[in-house]
Amino acid sequence: MVKPLKPCAPAKVIADLRDLVRSNAECFGDKPQYFYKDKSTKVYKEFTYNDMYDHVNAIGTAFSVLGVMGKHIAVIGETWPDYVSTYYATVLGGGVIVPLDRELALDEIVNFCNLAEIEAIVYTEAFNNKLTPLADRMTGMKYFIPMNEGEKSTSEKVKTLDEVLEIGREEIRCGNRTFLDCEVEPDTLAAILFTSGTTGTSKGVMLTHGNLTAAINASTQTTPYDYNSVFVSVLPIHHTYEMTCQHFAASNDGAAIYINDSLKNVLRNFAKFKPNALALVPLFVETMHKRIWSEIDKRGMRKKVRAAMKLSNALLKVGIDKRDKFFGQITGAFGGELRSIICGGAPISPDIIKDFEAFGITVLEGYGITECAPLVAVNRPGEIRYHSVGRAVPGCEVRIDKNDPNDETGEICVKGANVMIGYYKNEEATREAFTDDGWFRTGDIGYIDKDGYIFITGRKKNVIILSNGKNVFPEEVESYLYKCELIKECVVIGRENANGEVVITALVYPDDERRGDMTDEQVRDAIKAEINEINRALPSFKQVREVELRSEEFEKTTSKKIKRFLLK
After folding, report:
1. Among candidates 544, 562, 546, which has minimal Cα distance to 489?
2. Pairing label, strands 362-368, 340-343
3. Which of 86, 106, 181, 564 has an alpha carbon within 20 to 30 A of 554's alpha carbon?
4. How far, in Å, CA of 119 to CA of 248, rounded?
């Protein structure tokens, strides 16, 4: 029988990040916090909560000896236990962590390190022997610290993480408490996060200890996870959504996390590690949904499955849950234990959410933004409202600033302990980001219903202004287009036609699995026919007038957001 999601249980409330690490070790001790694949043996190993406490204290103490405690330290690479311990060790010593996107070009890494005044950089195996040749270009860089073996440099600036750990442990044995006794105030800067380049620009978001603590507590108070939760970490760890809501918040619950070793192995690892919870962006959820129905269609079972879903939903209304019996083979593809998915970063179709719920998997859509550390709102178990990203989390206020009092929508503004203190070395951008009375402008457009549920209708910077002056938010139109099974990816833009009028144009990348033996012309005709049907349900000014097919996927950020600024 499917175990229904329970309402959010009272969570351990942390006073600060040091309290998080310490209390985790006290409460969960030798329980594995991480399972990760050893680079040499290819065997999965355990990294316990006590291991985390030991590594954080050792690294932090070593930083005090090496003269970089309290300084700006960068970390880059794939998800790894010591990526997290480096983060903690830096900020608990009063320093500033700068997580960098592992897909940055080397020149960009140099630029960011110089801009953020980095004095040490810690990195995973993928960056061995790539960063040290750039040492002369990195102003102020004192140490290069590889987490894994394989760095061939003999420079005095290179110290392996194993060496750093040994330095720290020996200092602690000798009574060095410089790091252990360090106290950091809530308003102290903890992290600089360079926003992803979906708009072609990048700003350094400054988050304090208080910001991160507020977001962690809010996450654990509003999500249905506990000591028995098992995750598979998929998203890039340098993103604040993954770090705060997955690694920090899940550890506060005592959860276990399997580290996914490769994107190509995601579904295989779901089946292998049997997670009961996941934190994903819509692209992954949509891929899982399409994979389910693709397999169902291959077996000619769509009508039977839909009938079973209808019967199962009817039984649920009278308290009878047969989802495990009816759909166990479907959920077995993800390990058979999956019960919930936290999803944020972009809109997701309610139809997908309803399908997963019918199979026994609850999708809880939420809303966050880097500048808010990042959690702003989330749907709670048993309180889901379709099309909505949920209600504001504890300690966070949300309001709608309207240009037109007759319009229910306006810019979503946020106030609370989770909101950043500004953009690094960019006072002008910081001023523009806040209202005169101190509310953060998210740049998202939406409304709040009478029950406090937040609905996002689009991004302010993405709005399409038509020749007749009407405003169209492309995200809204795209949500309809994604219902077309032949569409794998799409972006709606405004483009001038032959008459010089700006019209709604859909750029579409077809789903190769769905198209089968169809020619490009047949695919184009089929998609146009489906879009014409969708247009019937839309106001005339929102209707798609032009369709262009693409032969390649859209370029995306590491968080799987399409880079709209590249499209014209």
Report:
1. 562
2. parallel
3. 106
4. 25
Q: 346, 9 in Cβ contact below 8 A?
A: no
At 201-234, the pLDDT tens digits run 679 999 999 999 999 999 999 999 999 999 999 9
Answer yes or no: do 531 and 403 share one domain: no
Question: Rounded to an integer, what distance in angstroms lies between the CA atom of residue 558 and that of residue 345?
Answer: 12
Domain range for 340 = 263-459
C-alpha to C-alpha distance for 373 and 393, rounded to whole angstroms? 12
| DSSP H helix total and E strand total for the chain | 17, 25
> What CA–CA distances, in Å, run from 398 to 296, 395, 439, 471, 499?
42, 10, 9, 24, 42
Question: Could you report the per-residue pLDDT of 340-369, keeping only the tens digit for each?
Answer: 999 988 788 899 999 999 999 999 999 999
* pTM for the whole structure: 0.86
User: Both 479 and 347 in a single domain?
Assistant: no
Which amino acid, 438? G
Number of compact structural domains in the chain: 3
- Neighbouring-strand partners of residue 446: 410, 456
- Among the candidates 439, 459, 479, a domain finishes at 459
Domain contains 410:
yes
Burial class (CB in 10 A: 0-12, 13-18, 19+), 201: exposed
Q: Which of 459, 484, 513 is the last residue of a domain?
A: 459
